[in-house]
Amino acid sequence: MPIIPTPQKGQPLDVAYISSIVNEVNNLVSSTMPTESNVTTIKPAGNAAEQKTPTLKSKIYGTTYSVAVGATVTAGEEKPFDINYSFKYPPIVVATPWNIGGTDSGKNVSIYIKNVTETKATLVAKFSTGGSATVDVNVLAIGIPNWNV
Questions:
Q1: Distance between CA atoms of residues 149 and 143, nearest Å
Q2: How are beta strands 92-99 and 131-142 bridged, if at all?
Q3: pLDDT-based confidence at 58, cuts 50/70/90?
Q4: Which terminal residue of the chain has fewer beta carbons within 10 Å of its beta carbon, N or C?
Q5: Residue 66 counted as domain residue
Q6: What is the mean pLDDT of residues 34-49?
Q7: What mean pLDDT is reported for the chain?
Q8: SS3 call for 37
Q9: For residue 139, with 0-12 CB atoms within 10 Å meaning exposed, 13-18 middle and 19 or more buried, which class applies?
Q10: pLDDT tens-digit series, residues 110-133
Q11: Using an 8 Å Cβ cutoff, are 124 and 79 in contact?
């Protein structure tokens, strides 16, 4: 990417110079805006065939992970799970539980993030109420792509 030369003191700012600044700002904005190739859409877990497979160079990685499928859980039980991706630095990770089964034990689930690295997030689903549960977790990781992959 070209570098815009610094003007000298007293130098008039002509159209060509202003144009080069505007072009570089536009290029910067274009390179950071989400596009179809660097944003992953999340579809319901039941429609796995519709899920878009994320590229390793995505700025946003999204997935749905099934923590429990008709499982019997106990109050206070914790289920750890990993989400794998590839970023240059540890990304921002957010997770939301999804009570697919509509049960009380699936309704009282909390998710906490145990560890985040450049390649993996370790999360834990904690069930506050025992019983049968079918719970998915939507996970988003947002970060700087690992262009070397």
A1: 15
A2: antiparallel
A3: low
A4: N
A5: yes
A6: 50
A7: 79
A8: coil
A9: buried
A10: 999 999 999 999 999 999 999 999
A11: yes
